[in-house]
Amino acid sequence: MLASVHPHNGPIKTVHRKVIKSESGSSHTIGWKGGREMAKCEHLASDIPEAPPSGAEGCEECLKLGGRWVHLRKCTACGHIGCCDSSPGRHATAHYHATAHPVIRSFEPGEEWRWCYVDEVAG
Q1: Is 13's pLDDT higher than 70?
Q2: What is the model's pLDDT at position 4?
């Protein structure tokens, strides 16, 4: 069982999950929310390589605009660093809408969770 973390606001409902291997050897995350099986999330497969962080020392857009952020998120596809939805700019989600890059991970020290925008599941 995993206590999920919403990418924008911290802990949310408890989600049960397990990683299964298909016949081709790829991994898929399957979760249950509220006793109902959720769709597999291929975006969170552990064998998909992640881009390194962009090098920004904070939310890229907030730094350019002089804004502030609450928590930071990293796009796993390109390394973009953006702020969470609790931040005024909500730049991580804006980056998803602009690029369709489906997965972010927490860019906070000690946090290892990821979030798939497409399937709305943490992993």
Answers
A1: no
A2: 45
